[in-house]
Structures are given as C-alpha cells and as structure tokens.
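Protein modeling request. Please complete all fields; requests missing the sequence field cannot be processed.
Requester role: graduate student
Desired output: 3D structure, token encoding
Chains: 1
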Amino acid sequence: MWKSEDNRLWDVRIQPQNPIAQFDPRDPLYIGNEYGHRDPQITSVDGYGAVRFGYGLGTEPFCDVALDVGPNASVVVGFGNNITRDSRFPAPLSFEQRCAEATRAASMVLITLRSRSSG
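Delivered output (119 residues):
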C-alpha cells in the first residue's frame, strides 16, 4: 500500500491462485458477498478482462479493479482518498473518480507486467 501526503491510498495485490471468476458476480466461484464487495461491474483495462467494485467499510469505499492476468491468477489494484473524512485533507473524490484513479493505476501495473514478461 502507498499513501501520499494528501491521504490518497493505492494498493496492489498479486493473487497467483485467485482466478478472476472469484470477482465475477455471474460466476459460481464468486466470493464478493462474503468479502463485502459492492456493486461489481464487468469491465476491461487495456484489453484485459476486469471487474470493478467498491471495497471497504463506511460511506467512502475504495474502488478496486481486479484484472484477469492468467488462467488462475488476478491482480487487484485499489484506490481511495480520505476515506475517514479527516478535515485536514481534501474531501473524498466521488466513487467514479476513485475508479478512474484505480483504472489508471491498473493500466500502469499491466504495462509493467507486460514489459517484464517480454524482456
């Protein structure tokens, strides 16, 4: 997890044994209900299958983007800002803005993974 001075938080979780199906609400392997995933939506990032969902307690959840990176592997990239509504920091971004940040970070993760696998 990385945190900026203005209380923006990013996290990346590499999950070599967790297929994307665990994040897909249409799949029997879906685990989102047990883990508190909110409003999962099927999407894509740079041509890779993905699921976007809210994650966390309270009114300002992280936006997580789970990427399908292999037959039984996923990478989850999350972003949140000022989720505790601390008055010393800027107000939380909207959920859509948090998801745009998470998607941008997910794209950077994919660029890194592709460059490492080709070189």
